[in-house]
Write a structure and sequence with these properties.
Blueprint (H helix, E strand, L loop, with lengths): L1 H6 L8 E8 L2 H10 L2 H8 L4 H10 L8 H15 L4 H8 L3 H14 L1 H17 L1 E3 L5 E3 L8 H36 L6 E6 L2 E7 L3 H14 L9 E6 L2 H4 L1
Antiparallel strand pairs: 1-5, 1-6, 2-3, 4-5
Helix pairs in contact: 2-3, 2-8, 2-9, 4-5, 4-7, 5-6, 6-7, 7-8, 9-10
């Protein structure tokens, strides 16, 4: 259904194309940056696939020997931890035992100790201050972290871990949108920014301007909010949003 909806977004006429530009694994890049985790930073700086690099470290095999299943499990841990997922949630997601899930998380934290420290430090900070902050300093208040109800506390802790990551990603794309708007207003162009969804921006661009506009958009997105690892924006275009995406 999502694909069919994307098909419905089309350029204004046959002389225009839709340009979609989105951030590559931006939340994990933000994790690497704010957690200052050496393993993740090294992987991103070397242009490695982060999930393959994670699997290599967690399962103790060379990059070349990582299997599809190992990469899938590593990917689940990478994204699960962003949302504060524990052994129970990971076990359900991967359809494995809680013991195996716990061993997987333990092995992950052993290899990526910076991520574990970030999670612990963030929860402790939130307990003391009642809020967490994005990289840009925007606050998210989470008073429930000091609740007497452990279920409520668990939910609050997951929010505390996640909010600086997703919040920083949101800050980054908003800064990029402001800078892109300013940049496009200084040049003679009929290109228009028409949509933002999560970490993706969509533009209606005259076909003869495509190369120039794509270069501008990619640059402004990649420099909007510098991190401790490279920020990559990937672009595609087409006759509808599905093609462009």
């Amino acid at each position: 259904m999502g694909k069919e909806i994307r098909k419905a977004f089309v350029p204004r006429d046959k002389n225009h194309t839709l340009l979609a530009v989105d951030y590559s694994q931006i939340e994990l890049r933000i994790v690497a940056s704010i957690a200052e985790d050496k393993g993740m930073i090294e992987a991103f700086n070397n242009g490695m696939d982060i999930h393959t690099a994670t699997a290599s470290k967690v399962f103790g095999v060379s990059i070349e020997d990582v299997t599809k299943e190992q990469r899938y499990k590593a990917k689940s841990v990478n994204f699960g931890l962003i949302y504060g997922q524990g052994a129970f949630g990971l076990a359900q997601n991967l359809k494995i035992s809680r013991t195996e899930a716990k061993d997987l998380i333990d092995a992950y934290f052993e290899q990526f100790s910076g991520v574990k420290k970030y999670m612990d430090d963030t929860i402790n900070f939130c307990r003391e201050k009642g809020f967490v902050k994005t990289i840009m300093g925007r606050k998210r208040f989470i008073p429930d972290i000091n609740s007497n109800n452990q279920t409520v506390v668990g939910f609050a802790e997951r929010n505390a871990i996640n909010a600086p990551i997703q919040g920083s990603a949101a800050d980054m794309i908003k800064l990029a949108m402001i800078n892109i708007h300013r940049r496009l207003s200084t040049i003679d162009t009929k290109a228009k920014m028409i949509l933002q969804v999560h970490d993706e921006l969509l533009f209606d661009v005259p076909k003869e301007e495509l190369d120039k506009i794509r270069s501008i958009i990619k640059h402004e997105m990649e420099v909007a909010m510098p991190l401790g690892v490279p920020v990559i924006a990937e672009a595609g275009n087409g006759e509808n949003w599905l093609e462009a995406h």
